[in-house]
C-alpha cells in the first residue's frame, strides 16, 4: 500500500495510521482487507470503548447483591428467592436520527436480545428520550417515528414498555437520544454467558439470515454526522419483531433444556463481535466456516457477511452431539439453525471458506487489547453563569405554563401507544415516578426509573451527574423499593475534543460518588460518543437507570393523593435553586444559573424515610419534586387516575431560607419528596422521619377542588384542579399537531 | 375444568391467560400448540392476545391456517365454549367463526388503556353470571380493534343480541367519546349464532387481580367455569 492510498482508506474506516501500525504489530504482518475491516469495527469507539475505558474503571461495580457487573451482555443482581434481575440500558441515537422508526425499533430489539441472551425472560422496557423543541416540524416527526418504532417492536414482542422520560432541548434537534433499558428475570441457575467453552463444540447460528443491512453501523455510530447524514440510511438496520419473538422463545427453551453452553446476540459488528468476544471470554477461539452462514442475498463478500448488522440473529455453542436437539427446538419455532463453526483451542478468530483461511486474528487484540486512549481533557466550561434578576410573573400563569410544557405535561399520548400491561406484572401504571413490576411466584416487586438532566449536567457536569443518580434512586424509593443497583447510558459529543472528555471525566466522577453514597453499584451500560451534527453537540447527558427491590409488593406506593384530609409533608433536606430550572426556561425563556448543590447524605436519609415509611404502611403517596419544583409536584400528585384531589398548602412552612415565592414554588433541587399521610399516621410518620434523620415538614392537607398556595399569609395561587389538569393532560398531543 | 390456551407463533398473552386460569381461578390450564391437531381434552379454548405470525399480511390471516384451528372449529361446532381475546378475536373473524372484520383504530395508533364495556347479554357461557347492563372496566391494547361489518350483519348482531360487550362511558352510556377505536355500533365483543364462541378486544386477563388495580375481568372466566359446571350437572 502506498502511504497516500493507505491514509485515504484508513480514514474511510475511521482508523488512524497509529492504529494501523498497532494492527501490524499484533498480527506481525500487514492485515488483509477482511482483517482490516474487522479491526475497523472492533476498534470503533462503539465496540471498543477506547476513549471511555480508562475512565469507566472509576465506577463502583461491586455490591452484595451484584452477581455480575459490567463486561457481559447485561448486569445481574440478586433479588431473593433464587431469582435475579438482569438489566441494562443502551443507546440507539445515531440510527434514530437517520431513520427514527427503524432506529428506535432496532434499539429496542438489541437491548431485548442482550437480556434474553443471559437466560432471562425480559419483563419490561423503559425509554429515556431526548428531542429538539416541538416547534420544529422535523423534531415532531422524529419523536413520532421514535415512539411508533418503540411501540411497533415492544408491543409485538409482548414485553411491556412501562416507563421512561422525554426531555427537550435545542441541542438534541439534530442529535436525538434514544436510550432503552430492558429488565428480565432469571433463576440463578438458568443464567447463561457469552462464552465459547469446550474445545470441539459446535458453534450454531440461529435466527434471521444475514443480509447487507447495517454494514459498518458501529463505525457510523463512532463519528460525527455532517449535512449528509440522511445518506447513511443504508447503515441502519431493519427490525422484525416477530422473528425476534420466535428467537426469544426458542433460545429460552433451548437454554432451559440444558442445550446451551454459551450464547451471544449479534448486535453491533454482528458475527465479528459475537465470535471474537465469545472466544476471548472463554480463552478459546472460534473457527468459522463462512460458506455455512445463512445468507439473505447472493454474492455477499466475506467482509459483508462478517460486518453485517442484520437483526434478530444469535450465536450459540452447544455440546458436541446435541446439534440435532438444538435444531429441533428452533425448527419447532419456525427458525433456521446452522452449524457454522467450531470452538478451537487457539485463542483466535479464524475465518475459512472451505479449506482457505481468509482471516486469522488473535481474539484479545480485538477485545481486551483494543486501543484505549487517555485522551486530552480540559476542565469543562460550565454553562450557566449568574442568575439575572427576574421580572415578576403571575404565579398562576407560570404554573399553567409549566404544567403545559412538554417535559412536564402528561405523556399519555406516548405511553398509550405502548402496551404497558402485557405479562400482567405492572403494579403502577405509567405516569408515576417509578415503574413497579411484581415478580410472579414471589411476594416481591422490582421498581425502576431512568433519569437524566442535560441542563444540569451542562451547567455542572459532576454535580449534574450526581443529581441524575440521586433522582433515579429517589424515584425508585418513592415507590417503596430500596434502590440496589444501577445502569448508565452516557451520551456525549466528540471525545476527540478535550472539553468533551473533560465533561465525560467529571460525569464519571459524579456518577461514581453518587452511586457509592447511595449504595447502587453500576452493573453495566453503554457509552455513546459523537452525538454531534455539523459540529454542534449535545449537552453531556448521562442517563441513569436505578433498580430497586420491594420486599412486600402489597406495600407499593404511587405518587397520587388518595383521600381528603390526608396530611401533606415535604420531606428531605434538599436545597432549591431557580438556576437551570424548567421555570426559568419555560416562563422566562432563559437558561442561566446553576442548579442547587447535591447533598448525598440528605438523599440517603430521604430514601431511608421513603422505604421505611412504605414498609410500615405510613405513606399514602410519595412523589419526587423535580422539574417545575414543588408547585408542579403538588399538582401532579393531585392528578390521580381515580379523580382529581385539590390541596391547600402554605409554602412558608418550608422555612425562611427560601427567599421568594417563585423560588419556593418553582425552585428545583434534589432530596425533596411530597408525601401524603393519613392523619392517624402523622405522629408515627414524624417520629420515623426524626429517627432516620430526614426532615419532614407538614405543609398542608389534601382536599377541595383547587390547588391553593399561600405565602406569608396571603393566598397567592388558587386555581381549579380541573383547569390545571386540562392544561397538563392535553398539552403534549396539541403540541404534536 | 380444563382450559386450553392456544400458542401461535407470536402469541404473547398466552402466559397471562394461563396465569389467571391456574393461579387466580385455581382451574386446570394447558397450552395447545398451534401445529398440533389436539385440544388435549379442554373444556374451554382460549385464543390469547398477541401478534400471531407477526400480524403480517393481516391480523389473524395466517393463524387461521394453523392445524389447531380445524380442531377449534370442530370443538365449537359441537357447542364447546371458545373465547378469542384481542388477537384471538381477530383470528376468529378471519376464520369465519365470528362475523365481521377489524380495521385500524380510527386514531391510526396503537392504544393501550382501561376502557369501559357494558355487558349486553348473559346468554353466552362467558357472561352467564353477569347481569346485562353491568359496566366492566377492562384494558385494551391493540392497533386493529375498529370493528367493521356490513350493515345487515350489524343489524343481525343487534337483533339477535349477539353484541356481547359494547364500549360505553363509566355510567354505561353509548357515547363516541368513550369508543376507543371507532368500532361500529361500539362493538367490543360479539358471539356467534350458537352463542358459544365469543370474541372480545378488551383483555379480561389483565383485569382479574386486585394487585393490578382492577378485577372486573375475572367474572368472564368465572362465568364460563359456572356455565360448564352447570351444563355437566
**Portion in strands of chain A:** 15-25%
**Number of continuous helical runs of chain A:** 25
Strand element count of chain A: 30
Biggest sheet: strand arrangement of chain B: 2-1-3-4-11-10-9-6-7
Strand order of the largest sheet of chain A: 8-10-7-11-9-12-13
Helix content of chain B: 10-25%
How much is the average pLDDT of chain B? 97
| CATH top-level class of chain B | Alpha Beta
Question: What separation lies between the terminal Cα atoms of chain B?
Answer: 13 Å
Number of H- or I-type helical stretches of chain B: 5
Q: What is the approximate shape of chain A?
A: globular
Uncertain parts of chain B: none
Which CATH architecture of chain B is right?
3-Layer(aba) Sandwich
CATH topology tier name of chain B: Rossmann fold
Descriptive overview:
The complex is a heterodimer of chains A (737) and B (233). Chain A has 737 residues and is α+β, with helices and mostly antiparallel strands. Chain A is built from 25 helices and 30 strands. Helix content of chain A is 35%, strand content 24%. Chain A has a seven-stranded mixed β-sheet. A seven-stranded mixed β-sheet of chain A has the order 23-27-22-28-26-29-30. In chain A, strands 1-2-3-6-4-5 form a six-stranded mixed β-sheet. In chain A, strand 15 (435-438) and strand 16 form a beta hairpin. Chain B is α/β, with parallel strands linked by helices and 233 residues long. Chain B contains five helices and eleven strands. Chain B has helices spanning 14-24, 67-77, 87-95, 151-159, 218-232; strands at 2-7, 28-33, 44-47, 82-85, 101-103, 111-119, 135-142, 146-148, 163-168, 187-191, 197-200. In chain B, strand 10 and strand 11 (197-200) form a beta hairpin. Chains A and B meet through helix 8 and helix 10 of A and helix 1 and strand 6 of B.
